[in-house]
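debug: dumping io for the single-chain case to check the tokenizer round-trip. Nothing else runs in this session.
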Amino acid sequence: MKKLLYIAVICLLAVAFGTLPDDEVYVPVPKNWPKPAYDFSGNPITKEKILLGRALFYDPLLSADGSVSCASCHSPYNAFTHTDHKVSHGIYDRIGTRNAPALQNLAWSTTFMWDGAVHHLDAQALAPIHNKDEMDETITHVVQKLNASQLYRGAFYRAYGDSIVTGTQVLKVMSQFMLTLVSQNAKYDKVMRSEQVFTESETKGYELFKQHCASCHKEPLFTNNGFENNGLQPDSIYKDGGRIKVTHREKDSLLFKVPSLRNVAVTYPYMHDGRFANLQMVLFHYTNGIYKSTTLSPRLKKPIVLSENDKRNLISFLKTLTDESFLHNKDNAYPKDFFTER
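debug: decoded output
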């Protein structure tokens, strides 16, 4: 806790003075969490850059027809994913092939997207911007539009001391906003900090979680950031092979990135194609629906046996991973002042 408070003070002081020391951690690192994987020395955080990245995240200017923003598929109230479609919808009502992943604790990730096609957060935004079914735009044209905007030229001047916008700057300020999306204050965290206690049902669910789920959904991030074949029947609509599309290795067929279970109660629908509408369906899959293929995760080759009461207890625990302060953090919401006061 002392470390967290110290880092938070450092961050607040740094924001006030417009920069952070290169040798400090740039996001709150809770006690017993691993060191962030992101290298902040190449993208020092400032208040102006975070605000600028936040504005771009909510601005449909990033799409070709000005109708879709990052927030269109990544709502803050759902841990920056969406709940109204199984898979993402883009411009011109085009339909994608995958469910939008939640955006949280990204400083601890080294690969992004369901198949790990992106290896650095600073490049992640390029994928939806260039995808024809999402934003159908190019970073070159985005930069042209930003350079034609007096609002953004002024904002980039305040952030970088130069009103000429570059593609690298666009991507880095968007990274800065996404790096601030740290979820670490759920009931689970408060229990770990001895501030609260689990109910009897939550305690039993936690024990079941550690027995059946924790090898892939490793605490405290609730993901091992790896790729697994979790026994889903291959879909007949999208024919998505998962990581094999990136590596072209047969051993990666039907492997997808293990998502974090933080805020899982509000990030439905579940799986890479949004096939499961609720947590009950997810648990039914793991107990009764495993599709055995050659690349099935070894962790799932032994059947998982859960009673109906076990499932209720496990879901009770999973709900303790909901971080209300994160979901309703005004600093993560649409920056109305940016667009109206400047």
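debug: round-trip ok. The longest strand covers residues 227-228.
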